[in-house]
Amino acid sequence: MNAPETEIVQFDNVGLRYGTDREVLSNVSFTLFSGRFYFLTGASGAGKTSLLKLLYLAQRPSRGAIRMFGSDVITLPRERLPAYRRRMGVVFQDFRLVEHMSTFENVALPLRVAGVREADLDGPVRDMLDWVGLSHRADARPATLSGGEQQRVAIARAVIGRPDMLVADEPTGNVDPEMALKLLRLFEALNRLGTTVVVATHDVHLLRKVPESLIMRLDKGTLADPTGALRYPPRRVAAGPTDR
Amino acid sequence: MPWVIAIMVALTVVAAGGGLALDNLADRARGDLAGGVTVQIVEADPADRSEQTRAAAEILGGDGAVAKMRIVPQSEVAALVEPWLGGGAEMEAVPLPALIDLTLTGDADPATLGRLRDRLAEAAPDARLDAQSDWLAPVLSAVSALRWMAWGLIALLAATSAAAVWLAARNALGANRDTIEIVHLLGGNDDQIACIFQRSILLDAAAGGALGLLAGGAAVLVLGAQFALLDSGLVQGGGLGSGDWIILGSIPLFALVIAVYTARMTVLASLKKML
């Protein structure tokens, strides 16, 4: 018998507006379970990035309730939020690497933030760079890396702390199809280790490359449920033809 | 940033050096003059003047309120007035008063002076007693005003230093906003991010403080040497002691504390605006 799945994220009737503009997200409700692979899809401007910002605690919603890892993060004191952020890895759409740091230092950053001793950094960081195939670029600055290399540094930085959840915003948006598939395999490998993965993408072809994935679709700020992913428990998307 | 702190520290060291020197000068002058009394025997007839002087010295020498008494030699009195009246044979025709320098056991208060005047009234009717502190009261008052001005200047410089650090920290924040946001989103807490800035400001403030102390200390030494050349007892009373130099040496440490605290508060206030 399978062990019961743990709910790690619950959005209940969440709305988000910036200033006095209309809501960019309206009545968004869903649950994410630990160890699952989710795709968040929708057209440009549908609200994917706004939803991810709520997920990685960069933004508070205008209304509704959000529970993460068992806590109500809306009412949680600000000082306690960093501990929750450390349980997540984030791959930003624009990578957001620190320009004045080397590849090694960028990847080591989450460990330093988590208080890992300098003497204990080298091994895990080298292993991670090896995993994303960037050992030979450890001393390079982000400006000297290609788009694909920067993407892999961003992914290495997001996963080095072995997060409970990985959130990636359009991680394949700036790379060629071959690299996109390679990155997707990295996410799947991480997912197999138990990390919940949420990948936002507008590339519908990508969705079929991970048959075990669950799909959430945003349309003009409202969450659609085309695959039943948002039901409790969510229904798995039917596996289509893939090029795996 | 280090240059701003260096200039601020140098100015503060000079202002504090001046303030401490004025403090010393006022304290020493007050201490020297508190029990000082000058007795003038203003009598034109040399024989009578000499007789009154002798009688006054006898009375004062036996008075319990007098700790020390010295009859100022006539040659010394002549030397005192020489810059105004000239010297030589003509001076002998000018009747100079006889002077007796007294140091009292306590302060030269009006009650003690009145009692001494009464005792001298019969034996030396031409004797005039003046407390030395009365002569210098306006000077000491001016010194006191200058001293307060120096401390006010130090307070203003401290406030200006804090404002300069605040602006520098804000600029640094603006320039590093991306890095701050990334560290913030990776789970860095406010304290960790503030520490990054504190360390950077601490290094700047330490370099600037050391430079400012060197420049300000050199200026105070040069000014002190210049004033010492004046060979005036009053001015020499304003020299700096080892305790004063320790205070001047600690100014960069205060600047360091102000800089680090201001930077921390600025960064924390900015971070509070983030979720």
UniProtKB/TrEMBL annotation, chain A:
Name all ABC transporter domain ranges: 9-244
As for membrane topology, the entry says:
Peripheral membrane protein
- The keyword Transport is assigned to this record: yes
Q: Where in the cell is it found?
A: Cell inner membrane; Cell membrane
Q: GO: which molecular function terms?
A: ATP binding; ATP hydrolysis activity; transmembrane transporter activity
Please give the biological process terms from Gene Ontology that the record holds: cell division
Q: Which UniProt keywords apply?
A: ATP-binding, Cell cycle, Cell division, Cell membrane, Membrane, Nucleotide-binding, Transport
Mind telling me which Gene3D superfamilies this protein's record contains?
P-loop containing nucleotide triphosphate hydrolases
Gene Ontology annotations for the cellular component aspect, listed alphabetically: plasma membrane
Give a yes or no for keyword Cell cycle in this entry. yes
Q: Tell me the InterPro entries matching this sequence.
A: AAA+_ATPase, ABC_transporter-like_ATP-bd, ABC_transporter-like_CS, ABC_transpr_LolD-like, Cell_div_FtsE, MacB-like_ATP-bd, P-loop_NTPase
A Pfam match: ABC_tran
Q: Where are the transmembrane segments?
A: none
Q: What does this protein do?
A: Part of the ABC transporter FtsEX involved in cellular division. Important for assembly or stability of the septal ring.
**Family to which the UniProt record says this protein belongs:** Belongs to the ABC transporter superfamily.
Give the multimer and partner information: Homodimer. Forms a membrane-associated complex with FtsX.
Task: State the name under which the record lists this protein.
Answer: Cell division ATP-binding protein FtsE
Q: Which species does this protein come from? A: Qipengyuania marisflavi
Q: Which gene encodes it?
A: ftsE
